[in-house]
Design brief:
The chain is α/β, with parallel strands linked by helices. The chain has three domains: 2-270, HUPs (Rossmann fold, 3-Layer(aba) Sandwich); 293-405, no CATH class; 425-482, no CATH class. It is 45% helix and 16% strand. It contains 16 helices and 17 strands. It has helices at residues 37-55, 82-90, 94-111, 127-139, 168-171, 218-230, 244-259, 290-295, 300-308, 320-338, 349-363, 369-381, 386-400, 404-422, 436-450, 454-466; strands at residues 2-5, 10-13, 22-26, 60-66, 119-122, 143-146, 149-152, 191-195, 215-216, 234-240, 264-270, 273-275, 278-279, 316-318, 426-429, 469-474, 477-482. Strands 5-4-3-10-11 form a five-stranded parallel sheet, sandwiched between helices. Strand 1 and strand 2 (10-13) form a beta hairpin. Helix 6 (218-230) packs across helix 7 (244-259), helix 9 (300-308) packs across helix 10 (320-338) and helix 11 runs antiparallel to helix 12 (369-381). The longest helix is centred in the N-terminal third of the chain and has 19 residues, at 37-55. The radius of gyration is 27 Å and the shape is elongated. The two termini are 37 Å apart. Bound molecules: adenosine monophosphate (AMP) and zinc ion (ZN).
């Protein structure tokens, strides 16, 4: 597979470090509020990446943190702790908030068919791991103690900025209003590894450390959790584009200074979901959630399809009209899959290989999900039997996660029931088109059959055949296609 590596700013061949395991790390949510559908765009695209890697035969181990401490209202070291802010807003304890929004996050993920990573680790579980890393960074001179906090000294690095081809807006650091400069820092980009003297004396969660009672900075948690579960190296690290700076830049700085060698080979960043008014953000308090989509009658998987229709390295604008269109496309796609009838015919392996090649050419080329959706339509149009088409769709959908087979089966069942209740029969076309003239002929034939006038029924079938229309009788109806 080829993937764009934000660290080299090139599309590269993806080659994992180890033959037996592919190590993947994802920055998880800060659980002080519901995830918005922008956050979930990042998790959908990362889910497709993970599933495609598995589909390609890799044994993926994926780790995700849950940020339940240390993420301040700015992505740098300024402002209030987001968790504390959430707890105050809801008059609950930080741990209650964390538990509630962690559950809410995974429930949203389930609705979007986002698989839960192999390891999910709350930041508050790994304090000893951070202390171990910070202690070594202090001993080796990469960190210093000032004004009660431990800082990473970025002047010790030959190269600090790794992802600096991103535009300034994408790299903008959180909310800055009314925040003063931290005068303890030796250099502008130095960042906190351990706080004991935060401006907020009411910080709820604190732990003992060699530098005093306090709490870890946000960046150290991802290095600590990754090393705890994946060891000293990492194949691919994912996150939204806003994580590139300062979060991922700082993760690389501290991890490589601690390890003394390169840490992670590939960096994948998902660009933002924006509204017409700009970036969707949790801190603004006004954002769209999966529950809101459901309340408004949208299928969450139509939102997943909406995300798949664009490339992860392009910003995506969300509006209701776009989602309406995705709903229509999704409904039609399900309708077309439902028109395929399994008949236990032999699988056409040649067709499967040809179709698989198209799918691989799409996802294997920097995760081109919109072309992968096109590859689904290629299956529907391909000249092969329905069983083969259904197999190819099931295979591809194990990566795309649109529940096409399940929803198509449900639609078929539902159509059958409705037809039985109405005493009618359904007429469907293979490509989803409707043609009143053809449908009228099919009804005439049906009426003739009911009246046991088989000569007329056969004559209508032959007439349609001559006009290039082939009929297949299905339970409670007829399926037609142009040949
Ligand atoms: P947070 O819960 O704020 O820590 O963010 C969780 C994930 O969502 C991170 O990987 C962010 O980079 C990503 N993210 C935040 N805002 C957006 C957005 N508008 N569009 C896409 N991803 C986002
Ligand atoms: Zn992270």
């Amino acid at each position: 597979m080829k993937i764009y590596n934000s660290a080299s700013r090139k599309i590269e061949e993806f080659v994992p470090n180890h033959p037996d395991i592919l190590k993947m790390y994802t920055c998880g949510p800060t659980v002080y509020h519901f995830a918005h559908i922008g956050n979930l765009r990042s998790y959908i695209m990362e889910d497709v990446l993970e599933k495609y890697l598995r589909f390609s035969g890799y044994n993926v181990k994926r780790v995700m943190n849950i940020t339940d401490v240390g993420h301040l209202t700015s992505d740098a070291d300024e402002g209030e702790d987001k968790m504390l802010k959430g707890a105050k807003r809801e008059h609950k304890s930080v741990m209650e908030i964390a538990r509630f929004y962690t559950d809410a996050f995974f429930s949203d993920c389930a609705k979007l068919n986002i698989k839960t990573p192999d390891v999910v680790e709350p930041a508050t579980n790994c304090i000893d791991d951070y202390i171990k890393i910070i202690t070594k960074l202090m001993d080796t001179g990469y960190a210093y103690f000032a004004g009660g906090n431990v800082y990473f000294d970025t002047s010790k690095l030959e190269r600090y900025y790794i992802f600096n081809d991103f535009n300034e807006d994408d790299l903008a650091v959180g909310v800055r209003e009314g925040v003063e400069e931290d005068t303890n820092k030796r250099n502008k980009n130095d960042f906190v590894l351990w706080f004991t003297k935060s401006k907020f004396e009411d910080q709820a969660l604190k732990w003992e450390s060699p530098w005093g009672t306090g709490y870890p900075g946000w960046h150290i948690e991802c290095s600590g959790i990754s090393m705890k579960h994946l060891g000293d190296d990492l194949d691919i690290h994912c996150g939204g584009i806003d994580n590139a700076f300062p979060h991922h830049t700082n993760e690389i700085a501290q991890s490589e200074s601690y390890l003394g060698h390169k840490w992670c080979n590939y960096w994948m960043h998902v660009y933002h979901l924006n509204t017409n008014d700009g970036k969707m953000s949790k801190s603004s308090g006004e954002f769209l959630t999966v529950s809101l989509l459901v309340e408004k009658g949208y299928d969450p998987l139509a939102y997943r399809l909406f995300c798949l229709q664009s490339h992860y390295r392009k910003s995506l604008v969300f509006n209701w009209e776009n989602l309406d269109n995705a709903m229509k496309t999704y409904g039609k796609l399900i309708g077309r899959v439902a028109s395929l009838i399994p008949k236990n015919e032999p699988i056409d392996e040649e067709a499967i290989s040809a179709l698989r090649l198209r799918f691989d050419n799409a996802l294997g080329n920097d995760l081109n999900t919109s072309l992968a959706v096109t590859a689904l339509y290629d299956v529907l149009k391909y000249d092969t039997n329905d069983d083969t088409k259904l197999k190819a769709i099931a295979d591809f959908d194990s990566v795309l996660g649109l529940d096409l087979i399940k929803k198509a089966e449900a639609k078929r069942e539902n159509d059958k029931k409705q037809a039985a209740v109405a005493g009618e029969f359904t007429i469907i076309s293979e490509d989803g088109t409707m043609d009143p003239q053809i449908e009228a002929k099919i009804r005439d034939r049906q009426n003739a059959k009911k009246a046991k006038d088989f000569a007329t029924a056969d004559a209508i079938r032959n007439e349609l055949k001559e006009a290039g229309i082939e009929l297949t009788d299905i339970p409670h109806g007829v399926k037609w296609k142009k040949v």
